[in-house]
Amino acid sequence: MAKHTGKALRLTIFVGERDTWHHKSVYPEIVRRAHKAGLAGASVLHGIEGYGASSLVHTQRFFSLALDLPVTVIIVDAEEKIRAFLPVLDELISEGLVVIDECEIVRYVRDSDPRSV
Fold first, then answer.
1. Given phi > 0 = left and psi -120 to 50 = alpha, else beta, which region is 97?
2. How far apart (Å, rounded) are the C-alpha atoms in residues 93 and 13?
C-alpha cells in the first residue's frame, strides 16, 4: 500500500435538491461536469435538515412538507484544477453557496495501481 500526501483545495457546493439547470437537478450536472473536466472525484451528500439565505428550515422529519432538502457536492483536487472549474459553477448555479478551502490530502493506493506513481 502506497501513501501519498499533498496540498489541495476542497470545493464545497451547497444547493437544494430542487435547484435546477435546464429543467434537471443541478447537482448531477455538477458531478458530470467535474468528471468531464478531469477532476479527481466528486461526492454528493444529501442533507436531512438545513437552511440557507431564505432562513426557511428544510427538514426530512416525519409529517414535514419540505421537499427541498440540502445537497452538498464536495470536490477535492489541485488548486489550478479547482480554480479552472469555477466558471462552470457560474453557469450552473443560480442560488447556492460555494466554499473553497485549503486542505491536506492523504491518499492510499495499492502498489499495483498504475495511478500510484
1. beta
2. 9
Could you tell me what percent of the chain has a pLDDT over 90?
62
Integer Cα distance of 84 and 81 in angstroms = 5
Query: Which segments of the chain does DSSP mark as H helices, in order?
Result: 26-36, 79-92
Report the C-alpha gap between 85 and 104 in whole angstroms: 19
Measured distance CA(11)–CA(13) in Å, rounded: 6
Burial of 104 (0-12, 13-18, 19+ CB in 10 A): exposed
Contacts (Cβ under 8 Å, ≥6 apart) of 86? 98
Give the tens place of pLDDT for each residue, 37-86: 999 999 999 987 777 766 666 666 555 555 678 899 999 999 999 999 99
Residue labelled with grid coordinates 458530470: 32
Exposure string for 8-21, b = 16+ CB within 10 A, e = fewer: bbebebbbbbebeb
